[in-house]
């Protein structure tokens, strides 16, 4: 399964040069950049673990790329994404978010159906990866 999340989810994997170009764009827009990682990429899991603090004081993407590579080395079997936050008045939201790493094997999700009263059916998603405890998911 190929998880589709973020701004560039339907494009091929971004190279480090392309990641640097997107980070440069975010910095030119005065959007602080942060790095997050998880081993539970469920679509409703919006709160991933932060890698350090948001990078408020950077002017060049080299510092962000160094932090991305440090996160990759620490968590080689996790999903890693970059977020850029637009703090301008009236917006104050995530302006850009994209994956920079995914595990080599993505087991995917199963659709569960529960039937209830009066022929009602409730659907849900269950990630195969969550069957293992945190830290051991995706072969880590």
List the helices and strands and how they pair.
Blueprint: H1 16-28, E1 33-38, E2 49-50, H2 61-74, E3 79-86, E4 93-101, E5 109-115, E6 121-127
Antiparallel strand pairs: 1-2, 1-3, 3-4, 5-6
Helix pairs in contact: 1-2
Give a verbal description of the structure.
By secondary structure, the protein is α+β, with helices and mostly antiparallel strands. It has a domain at 16-104: Ribulose 1,5 Bisphosphate Carboxylase/Oxygenase. It contains two helices and six strands; from the N terminus they run αββαββββ. It has helices at residues 16-28, 61-74, and strands at residues 33-38, 49-50, 79-86, 93-101, 109-115, 121-127. The strands form two sheets. A four-stranded antiparallel β-sheet has the order 2-1-3-4. The protein has a two-stranded antiparallel sheet with strand order 5-6. A hairpin with a 6-residue loop joins β3 (79-86) and β4. α1 (16-28) crosses α2. It is globular. The two termini are 18 Å apart. The model has no long low-confidence stretch (mean pLDDT 85).
Helicity level: 10-25%
Question: Tell me about the biggest sheet?
Answer: 4 strands, antiparallel
Question: What series of H and E elements makes up the topology?
Answer: HEEHEEEE
Please tally the β strands and state the result.
Answer: 6
How many DSSP helices? 2
| Strand arrangement, major sheet | 2-1-3-4
| Basic shape | globular
What's the CATH H-level homologous superfamily of the domain at 16-104? Ribulose bisphosphate carboxylase, small subunit
Structural class: alpha+beta
Mean model confidence by pLDDT: 85
- Tell me the fraction of residues in β-strands, as a range: 25-35%
- CATH architecture descriptor of the domain at 16-104: 2-Layer Sandwich
Unreliable sequence segments: none
């Amino acid at each position: 399964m190929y998880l589709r999340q973020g701004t560039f989810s339907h494009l091929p994997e971004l190279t480090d040069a392309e990641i640097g170009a997107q980070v440069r764009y975010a910095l030119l827009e005065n959007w602080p950049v942060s790095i997050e990682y998880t081993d539970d990429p469920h679509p409703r899991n919006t709160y991933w673990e932060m890698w350090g603090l948001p990078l408020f004081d950077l002017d060049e993407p080299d510092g962000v790329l160094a932090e991305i590579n440090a996160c990759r080395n620490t968590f080689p079997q996790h999903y890693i994404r970059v977020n850029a936050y637009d703090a301008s008045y009236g917006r104050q939201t995530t302006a850009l978010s994209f994956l920079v790493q995914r595990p080599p094997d993505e087991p995917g999700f199963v659709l569960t159906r529960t039937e209830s009263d009066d022929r009602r059916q409730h659907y849900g998603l269950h990630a195969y990866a969550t069957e293992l405890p945190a830290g051991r998911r995706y072969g880590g």
